[in-house]
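Lab manual, section 2.4: Encoding a predicted structure.

Procedure: take the sequence of the chain (145 residues), apply the prediction step described in section 2.3, and record the output as structure tokens. A sample record is shown.
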Amino acid sequence: MPEAGGWIFLSYAGDDAFEASLLQYAVEHLLDDLHAKVWTYQRDQAHDQKAIAAKITSQIRQSRALIFLVSPKTLAFSPTQFMELAYADAFDIPIFVLLSHLTYAELLEGSAPPLLLQSQCNDAARWRDIVGQIRVRLTAVEQEP
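Recorded output:
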């Protein structure tokens, strides 16, 4: 685990891997001074590991924040993401939601669980705003005794 900033867990549908990799790179670059790293399944999960669910749960528990990239692909094909969201909620991990090609109204029409509050949801085009919010949280954690 990174020493100072810690891990930020990025949850995304497999079909959104390209967008997730761009977001991962950008967030790590912007938070580099805090030594924060963004954990993604595609880059950081050992694919030969049998206990994938246990590793993901453990990684969420160790994270300082969770970015939930939700798209129409999430609603159609990715129930695992909603389990990741539930774990973050259960472990009291701050959740930041990015809506990609989806509005909050469309999210409600889909199969999304009630864990997603409108106040948590941000248009994906405003991803820099959540990086700023995560920076504030990481900085506050570093200053705690």
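Check your result against the sample. The chain has a mean pLDDT of 83.
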